[in-house]
Amino acid sequence: MKKIAILQSNYIPWKGYFDIxxxxxxxxxxxxxxxxxxxxxxxxxxxxxxxxxxLTIPVRVESLAQTIRKTRISNPLWHKQHWKTLAQNYAKAAxxxxxxxxxxxxxxxxxxxxxxEINRRFLVAINGLLGVTTAxxxxxxxxxxxxxxxxxxxxxxxxxxxxxxxxxxxxxxLDVSIFTAAGIGVEWMDYSGYPEYxxxxxxxxxxxxxxxxLFNEGKNAINFMKRVER
Length: 230
Known about the structure:
The longest helix is centred in the middle third of the chain and has 16 residues, at 115-130. Helix content is 33%, strand content 14%. The strands form two sheets. The chain has a five-stranded parallel beta sheet. Strands 3-4 form a two-stranded antiparallel ribbon. The protein has one domain. With 230 residues, it is of the alpha/beta class. It is globular and about 55 Å long. Strand 1 (3-7), helix 1 (15-22) and strand 2 (26-29) form a beta-alpha-beta unit.
């Protein structure tokens, strides 16, 4: 039995993204998909004294058809500004000092040229903090079939999957019937029922970057995520 998930890479994503990774045996960054502006690929939300704020990595949009993995960073100094913003807004969080050196080094050495490489850097590092050992692959490692659902199915086949775990948004387009015909089960991630945790600057907000949970709850962060059974 082998369960996999396939998602486009996001920048310091929310806890639900990491719960999908934790829930599978192998995780594929689907970075051969078209880059979309004003999306989660290069930005995410944090809590600040003035409310929710976006941390956005500046990128070059050179073609409407460019893929995520071909998207380049446009300002190499972005990482310094992001770390400064995080340090200013989370300095009083209960576990900020515990993670300060880790994240400061992670940010200040983030000099990769491509967005997908940066996103993977942060995913791998944060997985380490959470104790997540799921193998992470990139779609560029595989031969990709044509067709939206067919491509996902073929990736599952190439990975020897018996179950495909999908995010709920794919319910609008995923053709489950072709997975069933291929003998691969489809499961849907459930993002409901997350407990609230200690968070700066009320009101409480679930849909913020995982760094918010880590700075506020430290090693106890995993207790505010999904109970994973594989």
